[in-house]
Amino acid sequence: MPHSELHQKKKKKNYAVLLALVAFMAVIFVVSIIKMKIGMGG
Q: Residue ranges of the chain with pLDDT lower than 70?
């Protein structure tokens, strides 16, 4: 079953969305860790 051009574009879009979601979660994770460390230090 050959993959069409549309399929490739959808795949790329899915990866972009997944990457954005992972990056967003990573940012929130890092910020919460920093806030916890500041809270414990203070």
A: 1-2, 42
